[in-house]
UniProtKB/TrEMBL annotation:
Protein name per UniProt: Calcineurin-like phosphoesterase domain-containing protein
A GO CC term assigned to this protein in UniProt: membrane
Location of the region described as Disordered in the Swiss-Prot/TrEMBL record: 114-134
Biological processes per GO annotation: lipid A biosynthetic process
Cofactor requirement: a divalent metal cation
Pfam families xrefs: Metallophos (PF00149)
Key words, A-Z: Hydrolase, Membrane, Metal-binding, Transmembrane, Transmembrane helix
Keyword Hydrolase (UniProt): yes
InterPro entries named in the record: Calcineurin-like_PHP, Metallo-depent_PP-like, Metallophosphoesterase_sf
Biased composition (Low complexity): 114-130
Similarity comment: Belongs to the metallophosphoesterase superfamily.
Length: 415
């Protein structure tokens, strides 16, 4: 809970600064002092408060806040992106406008001799002679309004596209990954991989049923659910997760914890997932004997459990990967791709991960690269191959742009 509150506090500060910028560009620059500016200011204040209130409220079970709060979060993000991108062209336009206005002003003529009146005093200069340069504020206002309208239409259009993508069915991708140690008899072993289902305020049982049906159509040898199944307690979401008991595969379905399980009561969820028939790999490995060959399947807990004990413990790579037969290939299930930095020290052949959502909304994927070595698809970390699936759900805004929801059939190939 402390981690969640810390995150919400940071989010409140950041969104507060963002809303200050949006107020300047969308309200102050586009209105004259008066009623409309006051209305715009109040609206921005309400929206600024809505974001942290939504984060806290949904944690407290106020799920009706989710749609307005998370949708505004997405629109806010794209308004920020578009307006920042417009800063340079807007600056150029303002400079050009000012230069044209100045160039259009009449050249000052030589001063005429002052006329002395009957009282012996000079007449006052003409009004035109003392008028200050007019840089045409109406044109600047029109320019600001045009930029605001463009930003608004772009942000809402992209958000609408992202909602349709996020709420649509996950795409089914297939990837072949060669493993040097894989026995020829196991060539073609298939692992249906899914992550980040994120059952919660906006996704329920129907979401799980659709994912289970899609996985079962793949006729996989193994099913790997690599974390972030839920955003809520077992009491709130146990019924939504229940269809997982219908997963089918030849050699079993497996689960490892993600960071959101630690925010949602990890001990209860480990027991619940196990009750639904998925084997929870908590810093352990087991042998998968198939087609006359053997490989090791291992799983580690999410780093969010650092310092915890029992079912809430953090990752222990030595427990999961140490003292094994290194002539056999090992596939590691780890929620976060960054786990490969430690896993590579144990000669892991392949790590299957999620967590990143593929960035979820472009250009946020660029920020994810600062934290994770692989954002989406197949990569390599210190000799360990890492495959990262985009995830089948979403977190926060029900929006995906540039990273469609995904279930992946990983096919292992021998060389």
């Amino acid at each position: 809970m402390l981690a969640v509150l810390g995150f919400v506090g940071t989010l409140a500060l950041v969104t507060g600064l963002i809303h200050l910028y949006l107020w300047k560009r969308l309200v102050r620059d586009t209105t004259r002092p008066g009623r409309w500016r006051r209305i715009g200011t109040v609206t921005v204040l309400v929206l600024a408060v809505l974001v942290p209130v939504t984060m806290v409220g949904t944690q407290a079970g106020l799920y009706w806040l989710a749609w307005p709060g998370y949708l505004w979060l997405a629109v806010m993000f794209y308004l920020l992106v578009v307006l920042v991108a417009l800063e340079v062209p807007m600056l150029v336009a303002r400079l050009v406008l000012r230069r044209r206005v100045v160039a259009a002003e009449p050249t000052a003529a030589a001063p005429e001799p002052a006329l002395v009146g009957a009282a012996g005093t000079a007449d006052p200069p003409a009004a035109d002679a003392v008028r200050q340069p007019d840089h045409d504020p109406s044109r600047r206002l029109l320019l600001a309004r045009g930029a605001a309208i463009f930003a608004g239409l772009t942000a809402t259009g992209v958000t609408g596209y992202g909602i349709r993508t996020a709420l649509g069915p996950p795409q089914l991708d297939r990837v072949q990954i060669p493993l040097a140690k894989l026995p020829r008899s196991m060539d073609g072993l298939r692992i249906a991989t899914v992550s980040d289902i994120h059952l919660g305020p906006l996704r329920g049982r129907a979401h799980t049923e659709r994912i289970v049906a899609a996985i079962n159509r793949l006729d996989a040898d193994l099913v790997a659910v690599v974390g972030d199944l839920v955003d809520g307690s077992v009491a709130e979401l146990g019924e939504a997760a229940a269809p997982l008991r219908d997963l089918r595969s030849r050699f079993g379905s497996f689960f490892v914890t993600g960071n959101h399980e630690y925010y949602s009561g990890v001990e209860e969820w480990v027991q619940e997932v196990d009750r639904l028939g998925l084997r929870v790999l908590q810093n352990e490995r087991l042998e998968i004997a198939a087609r006359g060959g053997v490989l090791d399947l291992a799983g580690v807990n999410d780093p969010s459990g650092e310092g915890g004990t029992g079912l809430a413990a953090g990752p222990d790579y030595a427990a999961a990967l140490g003292d094994r037969d290194t002539s056999r290939p090992v596939v590691l299930l780890a929620h976060q791709p960054v786990a490969a930095l430690e896993a590579s020290k144990f000669d892991v052949d392949l790590q299957l991960s999620g967590h990143t959502h593929g960035g979820q909304i472009v250009p946020f994927n660029l920020a994810v690269r600062l934290e994770q070595p692989v954002v989406s698809g197949l990569g390599e970390v210190d000799g360990t191959k890492v495959y990262v699936t985009n995830g089948a759900g979403f977190w926060g805004p029900p929006v995906r742009v540039g990273a469609e929801p995904q279930i992946t059939l990983v096919e292992l190939r021998s060389r």
